[in-house]
Amino acid sequence: MTTVEYNSCADLYSDGVYRFILKNIKDRDTAQDIVQESYVRMWERVKDISYEKARAYLFTTAYHTMIDHIRKNKRLSSMEDSYTETHDESPGTYNDHKEIINEAVTRLPEIQRSAIMLRDYEGYSYEEIGDILKLNESQVKVYIFRARTFLKQYIGSLDLVL
Q: For residue 102, is it within any domain?
């Protein structure tokens, strides 16, 4: 990949990678750090990566960097902080569907959350998600199915409360 192609990747994909990481991490500074680290790693291997594979490489690298960050900072994870803050409100105060969906998504296991976000938010194919998450295509489909089932049940149970 050339320097021009690398810069093109930064222009084209940085927002998508940032949104993906931010949706999981819920901390803007940490998400920016992870995206920056992903681009640094890509720059270090710029000669080995083809321009056509750059998008998948970036998302894969960002995902694995995010997982490493979560593992290193498990006790201090901002996902736990946002989970606690969300539960301080009474259930009757929800007035926004987006807020309800975000709450439901944060309750998903990490792998299901990543799979459904790559599919439904970023528009990746099952095969591409499998490459990013290091799963086969059928595993990706199962995780997405389970995540969607959980989301339907969670949102449906909230409808009874509201």
A: yes
Six-digit token string for 115: 């799979």
Output the six-digit token pair for 13: 């994909």
Q: Are 105 and 41 contained in the same domain?
A: no
Distance separating alpha carbons of residues 35 and 39, to the nearest angstrom: 6
Averaged over successive runs of 10 residues, the pLDDT of the chain (162 residues) comes to 87 88 85 90 88 88 85 57 47 61 84 87 86 89 90 72 50
| 155 is a domain residue | yes
End-to-end CA distance of the chain: give it in Å, rounded. Answer: 53
Q: How far is CA 160 from CA 93, 154, 156, in A?
A: 14, 10, 7
| Integer CA distances (angstroms), 51 to 35, 62, 122, in order | 18, 17, 19
Out of 30, 54, 76, a domain closes at 76
Q: Using the Cα atoms of residue 108, residue 122, residue 31 and residue 94 in order, give the sign of their dihedral.
A: negative
- Which residue segment(s) compose the domain that 63 sits in? 1-76
Q: How far apart are CA 157 and CA 135, in angstroms?
A: 31
Q: In angstroms, what is the C-alpha Rg of the chain?
A: 17
Same domain for 13 and 38, yes or no, is yes
